[in-house]
Amino acid sequence: MNYISTRGQAPVLNFADVLLAGLADDGGLYVPETLPTFSQDEIASWAGLPYNELAFNVIKPFVDDCIKASDLKTMIDETYAGFNHIGVAPMVQLGGNEWILELFHGPTLAFKDFALQLLGRLMDHVLSERGERLVIMGATSGDTGSAAIEGCRHSKHLDIFIMHPYNRVSEVQRRQMTTLLNDNVFNIALEGNFDDCQEMVKDSFADQSFLQGLKLGAVNSINWARIMAQIVYYFSSALAVGGPHREVSFSVPTGNFGDIFAGYLAKQMGLPIKQLVVATNRNDILHRVISGNDMSKGTLEHTLSPSMDIMVSSNFERLLFDVYGRDGAAIADLMKRFKTESVSLESGRWEAVRELFDSYAVDDATTCDVIKQVYQETGYLLDPHTAIGLKAARECWKDKTIPMITLATAHPVKFPEPIVKAGLESPALPAHLADLYEREERFTVLPKDLASVQAFVASNVHRD
Ligand SMILES: *Cc1c(COP(=O)(O)O)cnc(C)c1O
Question: Where does the source fall among the domains of life (predicted)?
C-alpha cells in the first residue's frame, strides 16, 4: 500500500517508511492512497474474535508486505497480551443503548496505549531489519508521553525524548513518564506550555542537522501507524452491539482529531456508522468549525480535561484532504492561510464535514456535574475526558434505537481533580501502579529555548 501527503508535494512512501517518518517533506500528513474496504459479510464473520485476531485482520492490509505476516501477528499478539483486561477493549452498558467503550486497560491507563504499544514494536522491528537507529522526539500534554515511553523503552534501536510543560501536567501523569528509568528514555520539562513544546518538536523536525546524521521519528498522532491501530476498536465495539447488521454511533473525546479520524476511516472501510460525535472541552476549535464553519485559533485554555487542551488539531488536515477531493494544493493553501488568519471552509466542503460529524463543547463545571450525576445514577465513575464524550453523546444522539458508544479514553484515577471537585472519592491506583508515588523520578528542566533543547538531545543520543 502506498501513502501520500495531504499537501501533494512529498514522495510517495510505503508503510515501513511512513512508520519512521514524521511530517511529510511538504509539511503535510501521510494518508493511504486508497483505503482497504471490507464487505458486511466479512466484518460479520469477525464476530467473537479475540481482540488481537480482529486487530490483525484490520491492520494487515495497511502494512501490506512491508512486514512478514507472521511477524506482524506476533507483534500484535504481544501488544494486546500486555493489557490488563482479558477483553482488551471491554464495553460497559450505562443504559438502554448507551455504551462506554473502555480503552484504558493498557499499561498507562489511557487509550493511547492501543497504538503506542504497537508502534514501538513496529518501529523496532523495521529499524532492526535495516540496521538503523532513530531518535524519537515528542511533545505531550500528558497521556501521549507516558504511553509513548512505555511503548518505546524496551526498544534497542530508539532513543526517546519526551517534552512536557513544566508543572502543567498532573502528578500521576508526570510520574508515569518520569519513573521509567531506561537508558534510552529522556524526559524534558519545558518552561512553557504544551504549544511551546509542540513548536520545539516541529522546529526540530524541520531542521534535523543538530542530530549530526541521525534521524527523528514521530510518536504523536501525525504518525499514520497510530491512527491505523485505533481503527480496530471501532470494529470490535460495533460487533459487540450487533454490527455490522445494525448501525452504531460513536462519541469521541477529541483533541488532535486522531481518535475520531480513525472512526471516520472505519466508516469509509465499510463499518455502518450512523453518527460520529466530536466532543471537545472549552478548547473548541473543532466544535466551532463543525457547527459554524469558524476555523480560528482561540487562546489555549487549561481545563480539567488536559489531554484535550489543544488549539490546533493536526489530524483535521487529514479529513480536509478528503473533503477537498484530495486536492493537495488546496490543502497547502488553506493550511498556510490558517497559520496566520482565521479561515472558513469553501461552501460545499463545510457541508460535507457537517454531514459526517456532529459536535459539542463542554465546560469544566458541566464536566464535574456529569461525573457526579452518572456516578449517582449508575455507580460508574467517569474520567473527565470520557464525561465530556458522554455529555456530547447525550446532546447529539438523534436516534435512540441506534447504540451510542462513548469512548472512555482514560482511567478516572489519572485525573482525580474533577472527581474530587464533584464531591466524590478519587479512586485507588490499580495494582501495577500502586507504588507510583514512591518510585524514583528522572527529568530535566530546560528553558523555552530551541538551542538548549537540541543540545540536550544531541548530547544524550546513543550512536552505537
Ligand atoms: C489524547 C487524548 C484524547 C484526545 O485524543 P485525540 O486523538 O488527540 O483526539 C482524549 N482523551 C484522552 C484521555 C487522551 O489522552
Answer: Bacteria
